[in-house]
Amino acid sequence: MTFQQPKVNTSPKVSDEVRKTTCYMCACRCGINVHMKDGKVAYIEGNRDHPVNKGVLCAKGSAGIMQVNAPSRLRAPLKRVGPRGSGEFEEISWDEALDIATGWLEPLRQDPEKLAFFTGRDQSQSFTSFWAQNFGTPNYAAHGGFCSVNMAAAGIYTMGGAFWEFGQPDWDYTKLFMLFGVAEDHDSNPIKMGIGKIKARGAKVIGVNPIRTGYNAVADDWVGITPGTDGLFILSLVHELMKAGKIDLDYLARYTNAPVIVNRDSKSDEYGMLMRDENGKALVMDRVTGKLAPFDQPGVKPDLNGAYRHAGITHRPVMHLMASRYLDKQYAPEAVAGKCGIKAEKIKAIAAEIARVAFEEEIVLDREWTDFRGETHKTMKGRPVSFHSMRGVSAHSNGFQTCRALHVLQILLGSVEVPGGFRFKPPYPKPASIHPTPHCKVTPGKPLDGPHLGFVRGPEDLALKDDGTPARIDKAFTWENPMSAHGLMHMVISNAHAGDPYKIDTLFMYMANMSWNSSMNTSGVIDMLTDKDEDGNYVIPRIIYSDAYSSEMVAYADLILPDTTYLERHDCISLLDRPICEADGAADAIRWPVIEPDRDVRGFQTALIQLANKMKLPGFTNEDGSAKYTDYADYIVNHERKPGIGPLAGWRMGKSGLTHGRGAPNGSQLKSYIANGGFFVKHIPDNQAYMKPWNMGYQDWAVEIGLYDTPQPYIFDLYVETMRKFQRAAEGHGDRQPPDHLRERIKKTLDPLPMWYPPFEDDVVDPDEYPVHALTQRPMAMYHSWGTQNAWLRQIHGHNPLYMPTKLMTAHGLEDGDWARVTSVHGEITVPVAHMAALNENTVWTWNAIGKRKGAWALEEDAPEATKGFLLNHLIHELMPEKGDGLRWANSDPITGQAAWFDLRVKIEKAEAPAESQPALPPIKSPVGTGPEELTWKVGK
What we know:
By secondary structure, this protein is α/β, with parallel strands linked by helices. Strands 5-4-25-24-23-6-7 form a 7-stranded mixed beta sheet, with helices on one face. A 6-stranded mixed beta sheet has the order 32-34-33-36-31-35. A 4-stranded parallel beta sheet has the order 11-10-9-21.
C-alpha cells in the first residue's frame, strides 16, 4: 500500500428521482425507495420511515428489479388455439379478451354457482370478494385454505386474533421468545429486526421446528420436534405449568371464560354449553356475592372455583374442566416424549424456564387504564414470555387444535396483550362474534346474500342447500369441515372435475399456480384440467387465468388476462383486508405505478372492474346504469364499504377538512399517500397500547378510527362454545344433523377444549413401511414460485436437494450428491440428496417451489430448476388413501379444511443417478419463449 491511492467516489449518484412505494416480493409489505434513472428502476432500498421495516430490506426486496424486467412477463392477452396444455396461444386485444370473458361470464349470472372464482397470494381479498359477491356466486375464496387458515381461525375463535398479520411479540419487553413451525419467508424483516433487538439485551430464543434453518439457526435452544406432534408437546407444557401452579389466576378470572359456568347436566339439551342469563350473557360465580352474575357486570369478581349447584346437578366452570383434562397423566412429559421426539427432561426444563421468566421477571408499566367493568388500574402488568407460530404447526390434519393449544398456553400464562407478551395489531383484536357468518344463497341475476367467508356460530350457519348438500364447490362450511373460514382452494379443481357437489362452467383464477406447486397431486390435477368427457368436451369447460408471468398454470387456461408487475399498478393494503399495522398503530399502504408497463397488460383488479362494468354488476353500477369506477385507483379512492369507511383510512374528508379513519372520499387521497411514502399510520396512545380487548380507552379509539362501530370488549374463549354446538349436533341434538359417517369424527375432533390426535395419515399409512416424515418450507430469499425465475435470487437457490439427517444418510449409505428414490402411498420421486445434521432424525425436507417445469417461466430447458429441482407435491394427494370404509376422506384438517401438506410419510431408497429429477414431465410451450442466456439490467450511462 502506498500513500498514492486512487480517488473513489464512495457515494455515486444512483438516481435522478426516488419514488416510494410498497414491496410485493413477499407478504411482509415493506416500504421501499425505488431509485429511478432515465425512467428506469436503478436501485431499490428500504424506506427508513416505514412502520414495517424501518429501512431494512431483504434479498427478495432488493431483487425486485429483476422481477420487473423478467423475460417471463406476459405481454398481451392470450386466447388458446391449441389443446389445453399445449401452450399454443394467439395474442389478442384487451377489447377482444374482455368480450370473450364477458360472453362466458354474463350468462352465468342466471346460474351464478357455475362460476368458481379463486385467487392466490394477492393482497386485495376484500375487493375480489366484493366482486364475486356482486356477481352472485358462492364459490369464492383465496389461498388461505391451503396455507394458514388453522392459525387464523384458531386464533380468532380463541382470543380474537392470531400470529403474524394479526399480532406480534412485544419486541421491546419480551425476555423469552418461542417460535413454533416458523419458516423464514413470512414477515421476515420484522422478525429479524425483533430477534436482533431481544438478543441484544440478553433475551432467550427457543425454536421448535423439525428443521434448524433461518430463525431456528440463531435460536439459543433448538427443539427438533417430530412433525405433527407440536400440539402434544404444547399440552405437556400446559400440564407442567398447571401442576406447578404457574398460571396467572387473576388474568384468567378477569379476562377469559375460565370462570364461566358450563352446564354439566348430561340429560339436558344444553349439556356442555355455557350457562347464560336472559340477555345471553355468559354467567360466572361472583366471589363477592356468592351468586351467579354476568361476566361483564360492573364490580363482579369472577370465581375460578365457583361451582353452581341446581336441581341436584353441580355445574362447574371452564377452569375445572381444563384442570381435569390437562393434569391427566396422558399429558405428562414422560407420556409424550416418545411421540414428540423430545426427552421428558427437556420438556420439563422448557416449562420451568417459561414459568421462571413469566412469574419472576414480571414487567410493570406505570400507565393508568380502565377496563370494561369500569375498574381503573394504576399500572399495566405483563408476563414477558412471547410466542410466534406459522404454517409449520397449522398444515396438519390436527393443526386447528394445535394452534388452539398454543393460544391457550399463552393465555394461561397471562401473556397475551400485556407488556412483554403477545400483542394484537389493529384492526385486531376482534371477537369472533363481530365477524360475519358465511353466506351462500344464490339468486339469479342478483348479488349473493352476504359475504362468502366468515365465522360460523353453529350448525345453523353451514353453507348447505335445502337438501343438505354443499352449497359451495369446495365444500367449505359443511359437516366435512364446518369452520373453514378461508375456503378450500386445494379442493376446487378436483371437486369441479368430479362434479361433486355439482358441475361448474367456468373456473376463474388469479395468481394461483394450481398446475404445479400450489396443488397436491400435481400430475393428477394436470390430468383433471385437460380431461374431456365422452362428447370430447373439457370436463371443466372454461378456464380464465390471470398472472403476470408465464407460469406452469398458463398453459392450462383458455383465456389469459395478463397482469402487471407490482411496480406498474395500484394496489391497496387495506384495513378492510390485510393491513401493515404494527401493535402500536393502525396503518395501511398503497402501491402505485412508479413505472409504466412496456407491454399490453393491465392490473388484475382494474381488469375485474372493466368486466364488472361490461356486465353492469351491482355494486359497480350507478342507478342510471353508468359505471361507478373506471379502474382500481378510482375504486380505492371512492368505494365505501359503509358510510365513511373505505379501503384506505388516511386523508379522508371530514366536516372541517382532512381527517383519518372515518370520513368521506377524498379525490387527492392517493397523492397524499404518495407524498407520505406510500403509507399511513396512526399511533395508539400509550395508555391504550396494551390490554386492548378490555381497555375502554382503546375500544373508544378503535371506534374513532373506524375499526369498530361500537366498543367491542370481550373475554378470551379458552372453551369454544361453537365447537360444542357441532358436537351436540353429532350427538343427535338440533334440527341440522351431520351424516352418520361423520358423527364420530365430529365428536372427537371438534372438542371445545384443545386436544391432540395423531395426524390422519398415521391412521391409513403403515408407519413401518413409510417411517419417514417429509416436509417443505420456503427460504428467506423466496416467497412464491415467481421468485425462482428471478435472475438474482436464482443464484441463491438454483435447485433444491432433499435434505436428510445423519441417521437416514448413514442407514441408506448415502453421501452428498447421491440420489434417492422417495416413495409415498400416492407417488414416487427420484431426487438428489444432501446431508443436514440439524434435523429431526426421522424427517427429510426440501425448499418449496424451487423446482420448475421445463418450458415455464422463460427458463432454458436445461435450467437447474427444471433438471435438479423438484416438488414434493407429486407425493401428496388431496384425498387420503381408502382405509376400508369405502370412502376417500379429504387430506385436510376436519375442522377448517386446511390442507394437511405436512402429514406426508415416505420411505427412502438409494437410487442410481438419473439424467434429471423424476418425474420429468414433458416440456410445455411458453407464449413468451425463452429468455436470453445472460440477463443484464443497466440504466443510465
